[in-house]
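#structure-requests
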Amino acid sequence: MSANIPTYDDIIIAANKIEGEAIKTPLMRWNILDEVTGCRVFVKPENLQRTGSFKFRGAFNAISSLSDEERSKGILASSSGNHAQGVGEVAKIFGCNATIIMPADAPTMKVDRTKAKGAKVVLYNRQTEDREAVLKRIADESGAIIVHPYNNSRVIAGQGTVGLEIAQDMNALGIKPDHAIICTGGGGLTAGAALSINHHFPDSRIYSVEPEGFDDYKRSLESGGIETNNQTSGSICDAILTPNPGSIGFEINKQLLHSGLVVTDEEALLAVKFAFEELKLVVEPGGAVALAAALKYSKKWQGETIALVISGGNIDPDVFLKAIN
């Protein structure tokens, strides 16, 4: 790991660490999706991953890399729910304590499932409180080891195994993706996947996807510096709402990403509906934005090949009904 920036080699190491713990989710294709988009679309459904999202991969790689002494101090993380569940699950595997800082408006199902993993949940108001300040205060008080949801090199390397598996499966098929579309919050999954996909397919165009009004990554890629969102809540895509890009992942993404894409909440909900009705997949809005982008932007890519990640499926029943209805 050079200057704390993960490399493709770190992703290979992470893949060996998580083998047997994380699910190697399939790379899937549906005729209906190809017909609707006019493209060849390959989908990596990480909603089928352990704990319902890709976050388990990074959490396992980071926590398994700690010493027994470090793990004995406890694990501390902040998350709206998917990283929380991943950390809770991994902490349970290693028999260590976990405390998760979660926004008070996080989906109830995510809070309940995090507690069910045995983790202690501390709620905060993301409109009036600084998450990082809350995290630092508890870390100072407890001495617990912080496992950041995206600004952590080992987490990024673990998330990068998503892109590695996409590349391996597409190589096995003898197919090169023209475009790779990835759901983006703080940019950890995007950075790790970009490292893997770019290593195998350097000519592929890689895109971040964010909800409208929370397009800090798109703006950061355009300006070349880290931009911040004016608000931290207000989109149905709770899983990918972050104040700004993580500095570690941004060093990778500003080199490897083609550009950022944006979808509306309505488009994300329509993608949730499409995934359920046509693909028979249960997906949360934040985990569906890459699919939403493929449905929205595919007219520009007619006849080309798209690889995309569905990043999570932890959706509250009321949001699911809203999407379906």
